[in-house]
Design goal:
This protein has about 300 residues and is of the alpha+beta class. Helices cover about 30% and strands about 25% of the residues. It is built from 4 helices and 12 strands; from the N terminus they run H-H-H-H-E-E-E-E-E-E-E-E-E-E-E-E. It has helices spanning about 5-30, 35-70, 85-115, 150-155, and strands at about 175, 185, 190-195, 195-205, 215-220, 220-230, 240-250, 260-265, 270-275, 280-290, 295, 295-309. Strands 1, 3, 4, 6, 9 and 12 form a 6-stranded antiparallel beta sheet that branches. Strands 2, 5, 7, 8, 10 and 11 form a 6-stranded antiparallel beta sheet that branches. The radius of gyration is 35 Å and the shape is rod-shaped. The chain starts with a helix and ends with a strand.
Length: about 300
């Protein structure tokens, strides 16, 4: 194998090593919040450095040849290890690999930082029926004289009416969370199916990382929260993925002894005592079951409701 062939083989091996390194770094730096941002910045710096090195090598080779022709100065042995074409092929190839790794990492950062909202599923519309209180007929006062002008003795209307006790939720009354507004996070209402069992009053949400995937409700005055947690049978891209849910109160105290793990075909029944709880927050993180790597998947609380105390 002559010198030219050895140089060509060296360039080929360097490019293969660079491609393998870039692919390995992309797979290793999976945390969008920290690792992927570091890798993106590193790719930008390396790509800039390779561009500078390429310009300097081309300039150095041309300068070395010109000095050799004009002044008889021996050409640089380092620069002559490869031909100009081989130098360009190696350096430009490494630059392209670095830019490609940085571009893919940038796409991951953008996709992870701006998670798509959960799909809005059609669900039943809750209609509140107000039952007017029966009017109380006036009773005659036998102590009043017939000559007394009753219009002057009639009590005046209360300018500051108080809320009737009948308007407050009764103990034991149930409220589905698909009719409640979230105080934090996002969720969509609609029907869900776990293991071929339909849950018409469900809420779905994007499950990725516990720090950014959460939903919170005002449950003051409630006694119990019940739901069936799971991943809908028809969820796309959920194969081999699991979702882990944890419930907290307004003080950050965990309301369940262990995280609730669910996957397609494996829903879990959830029942939480809400006595004294004002805000109920649910966090959710997705993962690949075989490797425990972070993943994203839509998750659902089937027929989620609260029971008033």
């Amino acid at each position: 194998m002559d010198r030219t062939q050895k140089a060509a083989l060296f360039v080929f091996l360097v490019l293969v090593a660079g491609l393998a390194t870039g692919f390995g770094l992309y797979l290793s730096f999976t945390d969008v919040d920290r690792d992927a941002v570091v890798l993106l910045a590193l790719c930008v710096l390396v790509a800039f450095g390779l561009i500078v090195v390429t310009v300097r090598v081309v300039h150095g080779i041309n300068r070395s040849k010109r000095r050799s022709l004009e002044y008889g100065v021996p050409e640089s042995r380092f620069l002559n290890l490869l031909s100009l074409r081989q130098w360009l092929l190696m350096l430009v190839g490494l630059t392209v690999i670095t830019i490609g790794t940085g571009s893919l990492t940038g796409v991951r950062v953008l996709a992870g930082g701006d998670e798509p909202p959960p799909p809005v599923l059609p669900g039943p519309t809750s209609v509140a029926t107000v039952v007017p209180a029966a009017p109380v007929p006036p009773t005659a006062d036998p102590t009043l004289s017939p000559t007394v002008d009753r219009t002057t003795d009639a009590p005046s209307a209360d300018p500051f009416p108080t809320e009737s006790a009948s308007d407050a939720p009764r103990p034991g009354a149930t409220t589905y969370l698909d009719s409640q507004d979230e105080t934090a996070g996002r969720a969509s209402a609609g029907a869900a199916t776990f293991s071929d069992q339909r849950y018409p009053r469900s809420i779905s949400f994007w499950c990725s990382r516990a720090t950014s995937s959460y939903v919170q409700w005002n449950v003051a005055g409630s006694a119990t929260f019940t739901a069936t947690a799971g991943i809908d049978d028809g969820t796309q891209g959920a194969f081999g993925l699991a979702a882990e849910m944890i419930f907290y109160n307004e003080d950050g105290r965990q309301l369940v002894p262990k995280p609730i793990d669910v996957s397609v075909g494996h829903p879990r029944k959830v029942e939480i005592d809400l006595t004294g709880v004002v805000s109920l927050r649910m966090t959710c993180s997705g993962r690949v079951m075989k490797t425990n790597d972070q993943a994203s998947v839509y998750t659902t609380l089937g027929d989620a409701l609260i029971i008033r105390g």
